[in-house]
TrEMBL record:
Tree of life domain: Bacteria
Protein name, UniProt field: EF-hand domain-containing protein
Keywords, comma-separated and alphabetical: Coiled coil
Coiled coil: 1-28
Amino acid sequence: MDELDRQIEDAKTDEKELNQVLEKYDLDEALALEFSEIDKAFRQLEIKYQALLSTRKFLSNG
């Protein structure tokens, strides 16, 4: 029985190591940050586009 207990202990996942790996490869967090940056850039582009449209309307009516 001691041999079986030892094998079971050896097969268990080291929680500290597991947490290190999960932090290193946290794809959800990385993707969320990437999406946030893309969304931020898109919003800036949208603001610039609206400003260009407004300028165009102003110049064509002037």
